[in-house]
Fold this protein.
Amino acid sequence: MEEYLESMAAFRSEFQPRNDDILLTSFPKTGTTWLMALCHNILNLEEDEEDILTEKNPHDVVPTLDGAYLADQVQNILLHSGRRTTSRLLHTHLPYSCLPEAVRNSGCKLVHLARNPKDTLVSMWHFYNKILRREPMSSPFPIERAVESFCSGVIPWGPFYEHVVGYWEESRKRPDEVLFLKYEELCRDPKDQVRKLASFLGKSFCPTKNGDNDDDDDVVEKVLQRSSLGRLKELEVNKNGVLEIVPIPNAHFFRKGTVGDWKSCLTPQMAKRIDHLTQFKLRGTGLSL
Ligand code: A3P
């Protein structure tokens, strides 16, 4: 973790943004992997016949800058991310308030993906149980303690609420530069959300000349299909590969992707506690999660 903090510090002091960079931002376990795949496919679908996501996990295609400075080939990583399109597609889990000043002033586009707090917590609990349990059969971290940590804000990249509100407020101030998306809306209305995302990225899928939407629809379908959980999860690279920068098995990034899965883990009391906190933390912001 200490190394990771060094990397974050290096990102803050050394990273030089370009005004055409696209920076994806998310709290961990809110659907980052999906957002990476969607944006990569939106920007590269026409040119990317070889479909690089069949060979690499989305996290190895869209570098997370927080950890990228751990790797001594950071310059390569940054160079590589601009190889396919003119814009570099990058990612961070840092809250808006911690982004390098240069990024906040650069005018580069930010896309934030938010998710329901209870589903985020449960997804995070499963993820850390997988990566931190040393013995496969050892018992999971008690869910009561996970809830306590989440509510007190003492979690990786936490506190959760301040993180999401920071990006939400910025998206309201600068809607042309900061797009705010929700995991649940992507699940509910994937085609409309992908069109909105593509248009924000400057890649509108246009209706055909004769006015029908068929071609447009095909492209949107293809983006969604190539980015889908079902497809990515079954790829060999994601079944048996590990990430390039930190040795985390790719498979850990794909689980159920179900809205409301918190019900399988949290008691009604836990859910109530989080709901109260959510209400309190989001009061007056105009944001609902
Ligand atoms: P669950 O644990 O609820 O299944 P992140 O990518 O930020 O680490 O978030 C991981 C969560 O996103 C997991 O949620 C995972 O299953 C889900 N996910 C990963 N890839 C996805 C995809 N292509 N489409 C939808 N959800 C996806």
Summary: The longest helix spans residues 117-132. The mean pLDDT is 91. Strands lie at 22-26, 89-92, 109-114, 178-182. The first strand starts at residue 22 and ends at 26.
